[in-house]
Design the sequence.
C-alpha cells in the first residue's frame, strides 16, 4: 500500500475519532476535572504546609494522571465494537496497527496533552518549588503517551467483555508502577539539585518503544476480540 494512502487512512481515523469524541465533551472534560479535583482537595487533607505539599506534589499529580487515564478507558473501543466499526477496520487494506496508532494518538491528544498544559497550574496548587516545574512538565510530556498506549492495549483486550472496567484496571495498574517511579524520581532529583534528565530521557526512550510496539499489540487484541 502506498505511503500516501496509509497517511490518508491515519488522518481519516484520527479526524473521525476526534469528531465523535467532541460530540460527547463530557468524555474529555471528566478526566481533566478529576485531576483538578484531586489536586485541589489534596491540600485540604494533608494541610497547606508547602514543605509537605512540595515533596508530594509530583506523586499526587502523576497518580491523578494515571487514574484519569483509566477513567472512560473502557469506552475507548467499546462503541466502535458495538456498531461494527472495529470489524470494518480489520477489513481495511491499510495495516490495522497503523489505524490502532491513530486511536492511541487521539486518546493522548484528548487526555495526555491537556494534562501537560495543566501541569503548571497543578504544580502551583500543590506548591511544587519552581525547580521541579520543568521536570514535571517534561515527565508528563514524555510519559503520558505510555499511559495512552498501554491503556489502549488493555481496552482492546477487554472490549468484548460486558463489564471490563474493573478487569482493565487490575490489568493496567501494575504496568504503570515503573512509569510512576521514574517520573516522580525525575522531579525529586530536580528538587534536590541533581540532574533529572537521565530519568526523563529514559522515560522518552520507553515512550518511543511503547509507541512503536503498542499498535501491533492493540491490533492483535482487536482481532482476537472481534473474531
Sequence:
Amino acid at each position: 500500500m502506498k505511503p500516501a494512502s496509509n497517511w490518508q487512512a491515519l488522518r481519516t481515523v484520527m479526524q473521525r475519532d476526534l469528531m465523535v469524541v467532541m460530540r460527547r465533551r463530557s468524555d474529555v472534560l471528566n478526566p481533566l476535572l478529576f485531576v483538578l479535583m484531586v489536586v485541589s482537595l489534596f491540600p485540604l487533607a494533608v494541610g497547606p504546609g508547602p514543605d509537605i505539599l512540595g515533596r508530594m506534589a509530583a506523586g499526587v499529580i502523576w497518580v491523578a494522571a494515571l487514574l484519569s487515564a483509566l477513567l472512560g478507558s473502557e469506552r475507548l473501543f467499546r462503541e466502535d465494537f458495538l456498531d461494527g466499526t472495529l470489524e470494518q477496520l480489520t477489513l481495511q487494506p491499510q495495516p490495522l496497527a497503523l489505524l490502532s496508532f491513530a486511536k492511541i494518538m487521539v486518546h493522548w491528544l484528548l487526555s495526555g496533552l491537556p494534562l501537560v498544559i495543566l501541569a503548571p497550574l497543578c504544580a502551583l496548587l500543590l506548591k511544587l518549588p519552581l525547580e521541579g516545574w520543568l521536570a514535571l512538565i517534561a515527565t508528563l510530556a514524555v510519559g503520558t503517551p505510555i499511559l495512552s498506549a498501554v491503556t489502549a492495549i488493555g481496552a482492546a483486550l477487554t472490549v468484548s467483555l460486558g463489564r471490563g472496567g474493573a478487569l482493565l484496571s487490575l490489568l493496567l495498574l501494575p504496568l504503570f508502577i515503573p512509569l510512576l517511579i521514574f517520573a516522580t524520581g525525575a522531579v525529586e532529583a530536580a528538587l534536590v539539585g541533581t540532574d533529572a534528565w537521565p530519568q526523563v530521557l529514559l522515560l522518552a526512550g520507553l515512550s518511543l518503544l511503547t509507541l512503536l510496539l503498542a499498535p501491533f499489540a492493540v491490533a492483535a487484541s482487536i482481532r482476537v476480540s472481534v473474531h
